[in-house]
Design goal:
Elements (H helix, E strand, L loop, with lengths): L6 E7 L5 H8 L7 E3 L8 H4 L10 E4 L2 E11 L5 H16 L9 E7 L9 H9 L7 E6 L4 H11 L4 H27 L8 E4 L11 H11 L2 H10 L4 H10 L1
Amino acid sequence: MANIKQFRIVVMGRANAGKTTILQRICNTTDNPEITDGKGNKVFEAKCFQRGHHNIEHELVFSSNPGFVFHDSCGFEAGSVGQFDEMKNFVLDRAVTGSLKKRIHAIWFCIPMTDYHRMVTAAEQKFFNECDTGHVPVIVLLTKTDALHLAAMEELLDSGLDLGEAKKKAAEKEKELLERWLAHIKGILDKCKFPPKAYVSVQKMHEEGADCMALVQCTTNAVNEEGLQRLLISTWQSGIALCVEYAVKK
């Protein structure tokens, strides 16, 4: 553990799943990350942030918190076999590499609620059926949950409520819908050969100062290795409450 100075996370999921926004909130910044090729050579950022040009080998580091290193995969749409194999080989290699500094410690798999009508895609099921990440936990993040507000309002209005009553009950209905879709996603992914280790919803990530406690806490518990738990909690610079809770438990 003394040789590991950075907590390394692979972020994957569909395009426009809000991945970059989540990374910015975790690192408490609105700036774009510096992108290097893993050997310290800076990569032209604009090209890397264009859809379809992500290279999972590249390292994303935010100057506000260089203790985190992120790897961003291509969007999980109907990606080519070559792209999938490249991602799979990277994950499997970095999960067990002899270079401790290069090992990945967690995987965040993002599923946006803007696409709740199509929920789990074939490409996503393929990942959980073919990618054995070993000791590296995969955490499913339900992102853009604010998008459920419209669905909640539609259900309430269709039930016969007027607009005023529907607005009053919208928050409760959104929570109900989120729980329903989460149960549906778990019902599918938990049957896969290599199911996720945990699930967590992240909310209001588009707002500066959004609360990332649930995500960091979920990841800490999923890692389940004391040295890496300490590294994650100490790296996340907004987690005094989590530090106290962790210390009390230990």
